[in-house]
Amino acid sequence: xxxxxxxxxxxxxxxxxxxxxxxxxxxxxxxxxxxxxxxxxxxxxxxxxxxxxxxxxxxxxxxxxxxxxxxxxxxxxxxxxxxxxxxxxxxxxxxxxxxxxxxxxxxxxxxxxxxxxxxxxxxxxxxxxxxxxxxxxxxxxxxxxxxxxxxxxxxxxxxxxxxxxxxxxxxxxxxxxxxxxxxxxxxxxxxxxxxxxxxxxxxxxxxxxxxxxxxxxxxxxxxxxxxxxxxxxxxxxxxxxxxxxxxxxxxxxxxxxxxxxxxxxxxxxxxxxxxxxxxxxxxxxxxxxxxxxxxxxxxxxxxxxxxxxxxxxxxxxxxxxxxxxxxxxxxxxxxxxxxxxxxxxxxxxxxxxxxxxxxxxxxxxxxxxxxxxxxxxxxxxxxxxxxxxxxxxxxxxxxxxxxxxxxxxxxxxxxxxxxxxxxxxxxxxxxxxxxxxxxxxxxxxxxxxxxxxxxxxxxxxxxxxxxxxxxxxxxxxxxxxxxxxxxxxxxxxxxxxxxxxxxxxxxxxxxxxxxxxxxxxxxxxxxxxxxxxxxxxxxxxxxxxxxxxxxxxxxxxxxxx
Amino acid sequence: xxxxxxxxxxxxxxxxxxxxxxxxxxxxxxxxxxxxxxxxxxxxxxxxxxxxxxxxxxxxxxxxxxxxxxxxxxxxxxxxxxxxxxxxxxx
Lengths: 561, 91
What we know:
By secondary structure, chain A is of the alpha+beta class.
């Protein structure tokens, strides 16, 4: 993985030192909260309902075991013994004291980590396919380009005060988008053109939040050397013309939508032609230099069927189920990608304790060349596990309560912090997620229902990605009390779609029953066990599900569509 | 009136004597909105070192018990409704 050079190290250490001074002035009252707020937000420090929250950047989700141990240490020493994996591959701490944050930033800097640009109207953490570098369906590893974008965007003076936050995601697997690139301000797909040359397809104007939109293609094929200059032009046009009078209309998707993709493209191209200079072109040598940091680890040459032990899988149903659900194909024969589910019964989704983090770091060293990846689905990936070691690894994970066999199943719920923590939320998310996990935690039912994504957000900002859940749940406030809208039909991948509201909002004690009714109806109407939930919804429409939940498909009964 | 303590971000409740408590049970009550707003403005100016963003909320008060009227403020008063790894925050 990428190693800081002197420049990277210096700017992060200096930033931590600056913030130490700013915190000191805030604590003496020399600066007010109003003056301090923009400073703390630039360092990832929010004020939530009960405490400050510090969001730590994890570029493209990749962590070394040394960094994981440091995150454990911070959780244990400065917080309440856990961290929370976010839906943008970061980790956040829910209880840091302001007085401790400078020390935390020093600790992070010591392992080449920081919290800058995890908040505020700037380019946020660059996210990527969590199987980057190892997926069989990948054309090329996107992480070197993500790292180049990270370096370019960090403290970029022109883009420090954008109209609104800005999120970029990249995938190198054009046939299987696991990074939801169509729902980002800019999505980048590594593609091949008709001549067999590699380049980038660039999408713009996607997003969730209060106005969910699927990104549109602004450039079908961008030659690699132009990555920075072209993205810089997109950001410049947005910076100049994006709305600043209304924060709800300030994201780039609103500008793209207002201008239309053709006019937006014209403006970007105009700027690009006028502004691109050789200085912004990516030299092959620089790409090669950064790519070297992501060179494959020293894999052994192994047979493709390195005896996971078909016999053992057949004998051990728990292991077999976990391998079936949580283990993915790897491009190197004899190796597998393992999804560690951080969705354990009774524990908030994505919460991982200090002892678990320490143990995961040790496991990563022993099984996966010391690397761990955070997924946007709030789980962890061990990218390079010898297939023959899966049984032993699974036993170790189970001992840590991390052996759930539910990846991509209905209990693998994406959940925002909701009203239990978040200052923006209208309703709680985590209790619903826990109730769903408890209600459906039956192996046969999970496997029968198959891959169904449930995503829960506690407010319209959509941190829980409810718009792209096969089943989405949105918390709303009705006269100070919590209600929930049920949505069906969303998908974040290559078959991207935005879910639609099924009917009237439901009370907290109704919503999980409604999810069960929807799933039961799906089991009744699917054409075969191979027909996915999403495909069934697309085939039959909403009426059968409205009848299941509301007793009628009549809009007056269901409360409108 | 509520806000968050600057030092650790904990939920703060203003006592009747103008000092700040960590328990809603100790909060002072205002019986009309203009008085509460004036107090919030004063607190925002004079107590900004100790407290971030003070503001008034509506509560039901009976028999010494204070119950906020919204889910948000009830959760602020009582803490997250889900299990925490280390609820007491002790180090």
